[in-house]
Amino acid sequence: MAFWQFVRSYLEEQGIETGSNLYDAKCNTISLAREGRLMLGQMCGLNFSRYRKELPGYIGSFILAEEGVPEGYYHSVIIASKKLEKISIDDLPINELRAAISEKDSYSGRFALYQALGGSPNLCAFGEVSYTGAHRGTLAAISCGQADIGAIDCLTWHMLQSACPEQVTKVKVIGTSRPVPAPPLVSGLAEHSEKLVLLKKAIKAAFKEDKLSAGMKNIGILGCKPLTRAHYDIFGAYKI
């Protein structure tokens, strides 16, 4: 939250008005962009690939403190109930497992699980699938025995270890998905516009501010790296 507040304050100092609310539960990144009201947002790379013609302002992707993950990329952590901890991820009885999936259009909570278990974006033939609505819901479902396996993006997993320690102790990390471009920071501002230039300066300034930068590092974010839109073509193979 502090990151977004810093960016808004920086822009206001430059004479750029922003909405009073940082978040609007009635809207999403795409709807705000269509209405011309999206100053800055973040979205799943899968949806960015599908709707990027409506989002002219690609900013970049967070650099995460994850070993073996390239800058601007991320992966998902595959978690399972502890009854599966002695079984290799390659030997899991997939058709007998109950999978917890955050949302149907989530790469990190759905397709990363398919990729980690089957090596492709093709659906896995789980015995049962439940949709939890959020990564935190996936952790809750597995930790209480309602599901056997699920996927959570590595940044959220890092934060959940502090936010939900009791639930975390009841599950086991059994693997990770391959790294892919991280959820992009996007804007509805026109490319090459003066406002977009100032927005990018605000983001750079955020990572140079000592207290804020230290706080971001504490949750696993080291900076922001611009990739190319072509990096996100990888998500074209994933069918929702």
Structural class: alpha+beta
* Total number of beta strands: 11
Low-confidence stretches: none
Q: What's the number of structural domains?
A: 2
Sequence of secondary-structure elements: HHEHEEEEHEHEHHEEEHHE
Tell me which CATH architecture of the largest domain applies here: 3-Layer(aba) Sandwich
Assign a percent range to the helix content: 25-40%
CATH class of the largest domain: Alpha Beta
User: What is the fold-level CATH name, i.e. the topology of the largest domain?
Assistant: D-Maltodextrin-Binding Protein, domain 2
Count of DSSP H/I helices: 9
Shape: globular
Tell me the major beta sheet.
5 strands, mixed
Mean pLDDT: 92
The strand line-up of the biggest sheet is 6-5-7-4-8
Q: Gap between N and C termini, in Å?
A: 30 Å
> How much of the sequence is in beta strands?
15-25%
Cα-atom Rg, whole angstroms? 19 Å
Give structural notes:
This protein is α+β, with helices and mostly antiparallel strands and 240 residues long. The chain is built from nine helices and eleven strands. The strands form three sheets. It has a five-stranded mixed β-sheet. It has a four-stranded antiparallel β-sheet with strand order 1-10-2-11. Helix 1 crosses helix 8 (194-206). The chain is globular and about 55 Å long.
